[in-house]
Task: structure prediction
Amino acid sequence: MAIETDEFRRLIETHQRMVFSLALRITGEYSAAEEVAQDVFLELHRSAERLASEEHIRFWLRRVAVHRATDALRRRALRPEAAAEEWMEDRHFDAATSSSVRLQARLEDMLRALPEPLRVAVVLRYQEEMLPDEIARLLNQPVATVKSHLQRGLKLLRRKAAVTMKEYVREPA
Amino acid sequence: MNQPEEWNQPEDLNQPDESFADFGQHADFGQQLTQALHRVAPPDGFTERVMARTQSSMPARAKAVTMTPRPGRWAGGAIAATLLVGLFAAERTHIRRQREQAELAQRQFEVAIRITDETLEQTRQQLQRAGIELGN
Result:
């Protein structure tokens, strides 16, 4: 067996929010995100003995989660009817729903509309609060490419927010 | 820059939303994104479902290992068998050559004996013609 059961359970409980959130924001679909997250932890179970430290495990989990979620997203893109069904799921907010929850839901929708490479960069930057050079190392991409993806992603989000949220979103100084 | 096609979808996102009139007014857009994109928990029972899948996948892997010989062991057996067959064939060839050499030596010995006998007989006849009688 690659890893002790108790140790594996601890790793799941420590990292499940990170892995699931990455999968959710990249695939844009709840059920796909859980499937991806489970697959990532099963892969960890098989590979844990090769991972030296907690930091190494976190890096590995982020990388594998991004790759698996991207794969799932591409498979879904080959089935347009599935994507269309996702879009048909309207969000219903009642009056009691707080403004921050509604704002978050809107941002999730806007994020889901971003092209895949921009979405991945934005999620890693603003969900995981990683620096561009850390993202570049994780994705095995040049730092300039990551920065470009972040700039384009933010620009698109800002433009979309300006339309969606009525008020003009302030441009950076 | 060309806008991606999906950027125009869905239609409802293009409608102004009165609830977010102050979005982008109070803080940096990146900070607002960080606050909005906080990590979320997976559905309840996630850990147990992963553990269950781990447990269910282990016997299958063990079974696969027992049913399928490891390539290294299989290759080692094949190499050993090939070596044995090769050694056996080489040994058989060696024995056959030794036997052939023995038969050849036997024939050469017989020829030599016959030549010697004939020579001795001729010599004896020549001596006899000369009136010399050898003792038997």
User: Anything to note?
Assistant: Confidence is low (pLDDT under 50) at residues 1-26, 60-68 of chain B. Chain B touches chain A through 43 residues (CB under 8 Å). The two ends of chain B are 128 Å apart (CA to CA). Residues 43 and 90 of chain B are 70 Å apart (CA to CA).
